[in-house]
Amino acid sequence: MDANTNDAEHVGDETLDPADWEQLRDLARRIIDDAVDYTKDVRDRPVWQDIPSDVRARFRSPAPQTGQPLEQVYNQLVTDMLPYPMGNIHPRFWMWYMGSSNFTGALGDFLAAILGSNLGGGDHAAAEIDKQVVSWLKEMMGYPAEASGTLVSGGSMANLIGLTIARNKMSGINLRELGVGALKAPMRFYGSDQLHSCHQIALEAMGLGNRALCRVRSDANCRMDVVALRAAIAQDRANGVSPACVIATAGTVNTGSIDDLEAIADLCSEEGLWLHVDGCIGALLAIAPKGKALVRGIARADSIALDPHKWLHAPFEVGCALVRDAKLHKGAFTVTPEYLENAPRGIASGEWLHDFGLQTSRGFRALKVWMALKEHGVAKFGRLIEQDLEHARYLTEKINAAPELKLCFPTTINIVCFRYDPGGLSEQALKRLNTEIMVRMQETGVAAVSDTTVQGRHCLRAAINNHRTIRDDLNILVQEVARIGNTLVAEDFHDKY
Ligand SMILES: *Cc1c(COP(=O)(O)O)cnc(C)c1O
After folding, report:
1. d(CA 126, CA 145)
2. Which of 298, 317, 407, 487 keeps 20 to 30 A from 364, CA to CA?
3. Quick check: 7 pLDDT over 60?
4. pTM reported for the whole predicted model
5. According to the model, what pLDDT value does residue 9 have?
6. 307 lines ligand 1 (CB under 6 A)
């Protein structure tokens, strides 16, 4: 029977379930089999490939009014999607700061979707798992058991949650009721000039505006200059601006620098300010045997944003906001409309997990984290973080040993900033050359790094947050950057373009 039959006599019988479950079972098995091979053989494929125009055109066709067998839908994905990924599960992908996913996490996302539960709350097993993952993350950070937290889409949302609670608490008014128009004095938040861009968006969305965010200069190590921070706070107080919150970064996007969390925590307690730590990159160093010394003091924060889809390699998306004062957390977001009142027993008797953030319906993103943590244990994730740090040290040594390559910034964690620099070239020529090297490596699919500008110098940037990377991959990177650079210089590329 045609699965799309919609004759009048069938109205009322339609469902999204298949007509033939056994046929679905066969296809589902094939999809899983293919997925295992796809993951197992990732190293044999290019990191990335440009999408051919015919494939791209097929993604621009209008909405299908009628259906086709699922097998055909899947076949299109095999030819049109699977060969053209972003590439971050590949062992030689080191762009920005991504995780490299894991198969268990993918199974977790699948099972979460099979269960189909809404993690807005209620009394069911998935809600217990959601709360357990938050508890585990608190434990991993050294946060007290009575602290609060919530799983969100990622670090940007986790930061927004922390900063919103800080705003409400530090406003000194009933901000939820009155809004920012009722503030007695403009509020100020402080972060270093290396702060992630999501904080500006957060302050804008919070109604405080970009100017409420003071960028404190960073020192030679790209860490917030605490003397300058102290001076900025004093000056604001003198000018009738109300200092509210310091956003310390544990692992900046550019260089991986970690602000002096202890010194900033001391200053915040002296000044009575909220301390929020953006730990999207580095918070999880807290579970690494040696790495944890780098984030000493992180548990003193009033709120922490961290990102399991980065250093725990959970498939996208999952971030986490942790808040020391559970009452303040809940007080910032709870609303109980009549249709969401708690029942004495039954499905609606559980805690409403949507009370801890902005979403009402929430996905079961906890499961992929829960399964991988149960399978591997926290200690193994700590060792993998240590391994990334070790790889970054190794790459740094290789760069220092390569005559055409120059390190652009001392490596602190797993981010390595460097460039091809044969000597004697202008800053603009170096930027042109290194941009071309970066793009050519992506186009040939050999490796993927990104670029940035640190202290006025354009550089390539490898963020080695990848449990599949081995030393040989880093050797290939060093060889390829030098080889492509030398080829370009021989062609006078930097003069011609
Ligand atoms: C990645 C990152 C963010 C944003 O997190 P998303 O998960 O991408 O939303 C914020 N801050 C820092 C330091 C980051 O590295």
Report:
1. 20
2. 298
3. no
4. 0.96
5. 62
6. yes
Residue among 273, 266, 258 at smallest CA distance from 188:
273
Residue nearest to atom 3 of ligand 1 (CA): 155
Average model confidence (pLDDT) across the chain: 96
Query: Does ligand 1 have an atom closer than 6 angstroms to the CB of 155?
Result: yes
Query: What local confidence, expressed as pLDDT, does residue 1 receive?
Result: 43
Q: Say how many Å lie between the CA of residue 319 and the centre of ligand 1.
A: 9
Examine the pLDDT at 6 and tell me if it is beyond 90.
no
Nearest to 104 by CA among 351, 328, 381, 325: 381
Is the CATH code 3.90.1150.170 the one for domain 380-496?
Answer: yes
Domain ranges of the chain: 107-376, 380-496
> In CATH terms, is domain 107-376 a member of 3.40.605.10?
no
Ligand 1: does its nearest atom lie under 6 Å from the Cβ of 253? yes
Smallest CA separation from ligand 1 atom 6, residue: 155
Q: Which residues pair with 323 in a beta bridge?
A: 148, 303
Ligand 1 centroid to 412 CA: how many Å? 18
118-150 in b/e burial notation, b at 16+ Cβ within 10 A? Answer: bbbbbeeebbebbbebbebbbebbebeeebbbb
For residue 217, give Cα distances in angstroms to 221, 453, 491. 11, 16, 40
Please report which confidence band the pLDDT of residue 497 belongs to, taking 50, 70 and 90 as the band edges: low
Q: Is 473 in the pocket of ligand 1 (CB under 6 A)?
A: no
Nearest atom within ligand 1 for CA of residue 319 = 7
The per-residue pLDDT for range 374-383, each reduced to its tens digit, is 999 999 999 9
Compute the average pLDDT of residues 168-176: 98
Q: Which stretch of 100-109, 117-126, 333-342, 480-489 has the lowest confidence by average pLDDT?
A: 333-342
Q: Is the CB of 463 under 6 A from ligand 1?
A: no
